[in-house]
């Protein structure tokens, strides 16, 4: 089975809705999954960074993945965020996602521990060998401190179930270098909304996106236009979102997308500590930015 056929396109790293008391709002979560499917989203990452994964318990992790799979249409890619700075915990989370029927596991470079490149290889190899689930590497040095080198990525692709990478560096030279040296069919996904379209136009397969939480139809359309050769249309759409891409990180994510989704009536504006909702000043900025982005897209 080829996993490169349906893991592509606009793939929001979905927020996790909470009630005012901080519990998971499962009905709001189901509604979000349905809303994304109806608006052309190509897949979803559950329990990623934008889903506040460090503050999700193992039981909640399983509940969210199972609920997403049960809610989405059959064959719709549900990718489970399974990363941790503990190899043993990463294995456990990946095994659980596999048992629940996730399409793949998104596994971040271990944070805080600051492993060597050899340690990174050993970490991903251990997870790979302990599970049967396809694995997407996730390199985001702005959060993990350690940057997974191209050489380590290329070496890991020799393992059969390492099927792709989410690259949040924004460095297109890394995409070009990896594509030049990776011999197998491999999924290249941007993790940086601001450079995602250029990443796709240079041979990438899509974007695991923060912005797509808020404007899923537009983000899906950008990818669709790029795929069918409507490059100018895609660039025009993406340019209109350029400020919104930036403002998604005006304060630590997912404060901005959660605020905007609450204003749209999808969720409550609740985050778990140590993250906080947007300040009133930032809220006004992101709300006005979204209005301008949508107005410009008309």
Q: Key features?
A:
12% strand; TIM Barrel; alpha/beta; 298 residues; eight-stranded parallel β-sheet; 13 helices
Ends apart, CA distance between termini: 40 Å
- The share of residues in extended strands comes to 5-15%
Q: How many strands in all?
A: 8
CATH superfamily: Aldolase class I
Radius of gyration: 18 Å
Specify the overall morphology.
Answer: globular
Largest sheet: 8 strands, parallel
Low-confidence stretches at least 5 residues in length (pLDDT < 50)?
none
CATH class: Alpha Beta
Tally of separate helices: 13
What share of residues is helical? 40-55%
Strand order of the largest sheet: 1-8-7-6-5-4-3-2
Roughly what is the average pLDDT, rounded to an integer?
96
Named CATH architecture: Alpha-Beta Barrel
3D architecture notes:
With 298 residues, the chain is an alpha/beta fold. The protein has one domain (9-241): TIM Barrel. Helices cover 46% and strands 12% of the residues. It contains 13 helices and eight strands. The chain has helices spanning 26-38, 58-71, 87-100, 117-130, 141-144, 150-156, 172-181, 196-201, 216-227, 231-240, 242-247, 255-263, 280-297, and strands spanning 9-12, 44-46, 78-81, 104-108, 135-139, 162-167, 187-190, 206-209. An eight-stranded parallel beta sheet has the order 1-8-7-6-5-4-3-2. Helix 2 (58-71) runs parallel beside helix 3, helix 4 (117-130) packs parallel to helix 6 and helix 12 (255-263) crosses helix 13. The N and C termini lie far apart (40 Å).
